[in-house]
Amino acid sequence: MLIFDVFVYLIQTIIGFFRRSKSDDMSGKLKIYVKCGPETTVPVYLETDWTVYDLKHAISSKLCMKTEELRIIFAGKELHDNVKIQDCDVGEQSVIHAVSQKKQPVNVTIEAKCPLNLTPFYSNDCDQNETGEKTYSKKTHFFVFCNGPCKDLCPGKLRIRCRTCKEGTLTVDQDPTCWDDVLIPGQISGVCQSENCNGTVAEFYFKCAKHIASPNEWAIPLYLIKNNFKHIPCIACTGISEVILVFPCADGHVICIECFKLYCISRLNERRFIQNEAVGYTIDCPAGCTDSLIKEPHHFRLLGEEQYSRYQRFGAEEYLLQAGGVLCPQPGCGAGLLPDPECKKSRVVCIQEGGGGCGFVFCRQCMQGFHIGACEAQEPSGITDGMNYAIIDERASSSKWDEDSKKTIKITTKPCPKCRTPTERDGGCMHMVCTRSQCGYHWCWICQEEW
């Protein structure tokens, strides 16, 4: 048994040695995938100092093609032989496309050497060196909200593909110069280099640069978020942050991300978001500028899951109310309802359908249980009008001393339609008789109308 244990130990040691050797060989290398056609994908481990020519030489034998016949396309550009891979913003497990020289080669200029991800949309972010060649900062130019494992604001990678075949083999005729070129389909043209595709229209998309994304994983671009190259102070705290949000107003007011979150949450608590017919539920510049509404709702994902859920709920409620709907006043329900404008005596029923609704019947005018006759005056809210600070609705509701008792009564009873006396049903049929001696009204528990 001892000899067998020694033998097993030696085998495990040898296997571990080879594993470590292989791991050491791979350290410092970048793993990418080279795709040649729809069915051929070759994994490649790049050295950090490789040029495009080195990559062609490494994959030519695997693709059964000559090095000089290969063309490498990445992010809408054909990469020149002397360009270093590390200068092209190629990340771990990125996909690079290789095509043959069958189509007319694209003229590669100095401008074409710069990958799209490092080509900013605003001219102040690039400089010229002594030879007059434009150089680009490697700071992040694009930001996305990663809905994958990050669940956060992340640097983004701009990618491009052919709108016809959906492959990344299209080379663009010109770089995008503004966000409209990227976000509005059909703005940028090009030539698809795939053998069996004649596509001429570019399609842009974004990926999260913070984690290794799957081929079909996209990220939502947050085009108002920018790197603060100009060192503009925040409109709220006056601090200078590295990453900021620029409102779409004429003055382009700047706010740091933390102040933006506080600003949005404050507006949510006060129900002061704006329901715009064209844009939806949103906010404008804190300076009150015109034409400054945030049009991309994913910017509000920066608030976190809980606050974003509130934003969605409040937005749906506001849309419903503006469309002439009401919210069920029964505690614990709050279902959105669109009653018939001709409904009898403002009587609204919270219909129980599809797991929603509670069956509560109420008056649309006073939002109390359905009744006969004029509505009664509502109790004062008890919140002083002269307060100089905002009270969160949820905290105010939970801080009322008798609120629990009132809520229990409202849930377990229904008001007499005639005198509004709270009445509790204790089994039996639905025929109710008001317990108030001066009333004695006969009514139905379900429909709350006269028996």
Question: Explain this structure to me?
Answer:
Keywords: Autophagy, Cytoplasm, Metal-binding, Mitochondrion, Phosphoprotein, Repeat, Transferase, Ubl conjugation, Ubl conjugation pathway, Zinc, Zinc-finger. It catalyses: [E2 ubiquitin-conjugating enzyme]-S-ubiquitinyl-L-cysteine + [acceptor protein]-L-lysine = [E2 ubiquitin-conjugating enzyme]-L-cysteine + [acceptor protein]-N(6)-ubiquitinyl-L-lysine. Its EC number is 2.3.2.31. The protein has about 450 residues and is an alpha+beta fold. Among the domains are: about 30-100, Ubiquitin-like (UB roll), CATH 3.10.20; about 145-225, no CATH class; about 225-310, Zinc/RING finger domain, C3HC4 (zinc finger) (Herpes Virus-1); about 415-445, no CATH class. About 20% of the residues lie in helices and about 20% in strands. The chain has 8 helices and 26 strands. The strands form 10 sheets. A 5-stranded mixed β-sheet has the order 2-1-5-3-4, covered by helices on one side. Strand 1 and strand 2 (about 40-45) form a beta hairpin. The termini are far apart.
Mean pLDDT: 76
Specify the helix fraction band. 10-25%
Going across the major beta sheet, what is the strand order? 2-1-5-3-4
pLDDT < 50 runs, ≥5 residues: 20-26, 105-113, 122-137, 381-392, 395-404
Looking at the structure, what is the overall shape?
Answer: elongated
Our estimate of the beta-strand percent is: 15-25%
Task: Tell me the major beta sheet.
Answer: 5 strands, mixed
Please tell me the CATH architecture of the domain at 226-311 by its name: 2-Layer Sandwich
State the name of the first-level CATH class of the domain at 226-311.
Alpha Beta
Total of DSSP H or I helical runs spanning 4+ residues: 8
Q: Any idea what the radius of gyration is?
A: 32 Å
CATH superfamily of the domain at 226-311: Zinc/RING finger domain, C3HC4 (zinc finger)
Quaternary structure state of the chains depicted: single chain
> How far is the N terminus from the C terminus?
93 Å
Number of beta strands = 26
Determine the CATH topology of the domain at 226-311: Herpes Virus-1
Class by alpha and beta content? alpha+beta
Pathway: Protein modification; protein ubiquitination
Catalytic activity: [E2 ubiquitin-conjugating enzyme]-S-ubiquitinyl-L-cysteine + [acceptor protein]-L-lysine = [E2 ubiquitin-conjugating enzyme]-L-cysteine + [acceptor protein]-N(6)-ubiquitinyl-L-lysine
Domain RING-type: 230-451
Subcellular location: Cytoplasm, Cytosol; Mitochondrion
